[in-house]
Design a protein that fits this description.
By secondary structure, the chain is mostly helical. Helix content is 56%, strand content 9%. The chain has 8 helices and 9 strands. The strands form 4 sheets. Strands 5-8-9 form a 3-stranded antiparallel β-sheet. A two-stranded antiparallel ribbon has the order 1-2. Helix 4 runs parallel beside helix 6. The chain starts with a helix and ends with a helix. The model has no long low-confidence stretch (mean pLDDT 95).
Length: 234
């Protein structure tokens, strides 16, 4: 883990840095846009490693990475895939939004610092209202329903299971998404998950990482959240 941190700190090109913010490239070369969930993911990793090591450089860098992403939110608490937004055709998509939200709650859980939590809560509500159907189906983007992708379903379960540790209304949302996913993407004949459903067709094959590894993690998070809720009520 320390070697990964050194790679992030020393090898990945810096696109912007000042006293409060840091933006890094998605790849090992200078690029003309910041991938916002990448910044948040790196920050979440570094803050976890700070918790284990006490290395203050890690906390400082993590805070600056996540601050950059938080400050690039829209006025309605959503994120484009890139900054500037014109550098990608992706608008507010499902699983990258969930990844940013996870980074914010993970930062809070590791540090106890509530700096980003108002943004987290408002962003979480945007995610729930605009990136899922009422029955739990994961929208592809805020302005596009299809395809319903397994990764979006898994990310929603993960994000709302994590959110349930703070707000007891969110485990129900995680359960709704899990129910939809089992009904629409689970393949009982092979005991795995299909890739995605489109408006007129189904990608009826499974991918080890994109489909099954993500759903394994999602169901694990959901089970953990369910046990946590059961423990609080007993």
């Amino acid at each position: 883990a320390r070697s990964v941190a050194r790679f992030i700190l020393n090898d990945i090109p810096v696109l912007l840095e000042d006293e409060n913010e840091l933006a890094i490239a998605y790849v090992l070369r200078k690029v003309d846009a910041v991938v916002l969930n990448n910044n948040a993911l790196a920050g979440a990793f570094l803050i976890k490693l700070w918790k284990e090591t006490g290395d203050e450089e890690l906390r400082t860098t993590a805070t600056k990475l996540i601050t950059y992403t938080v400050n690039r939110r829209t006025e309605y608490y959503a994120w484009y895939y890139t900054h500037p937004k014109s550098k990608s055709s992706i608008t507010h998509d499902n699983y990258h939004t969930g990844g940013i939200l996870d980074a914010l709650i993970e930062f809070f859980e590791e540090t106890g610092d509530e700096t980003f939590m108002e943004v987290y809560r408002k962003g979480l509500e945007y995610y729930r209202k605009h990136l899922f159907e009422p029955d739990g189906a994961p929208r592809w983007m805020n302005d596009r329903r299809y395809p319903y992708d397994i990764h979006g379903a898994a990310q929603g379960i993960i994000t709302f299971a994590k959110a349930g540790r703070l707000e007891n209304i969110y485990p129900e949302q995680a359960g709704k998404i899990a129910g939809w996913t089992h009904a629409n993407l689970f393949r009982p004949e092979t005991d795995d998950y299909a890739y995605r459903n489109g408006r007129f067709m189904k990608w009826n094959y499974s991918l080890m990482r994109w489909c099954n590894a993500w759903m394994t993690r999602a169901l694990g998070e959901f089970l953990d959240a369910s046990l946590h809720e059961r423990g609080k009520s007993s």
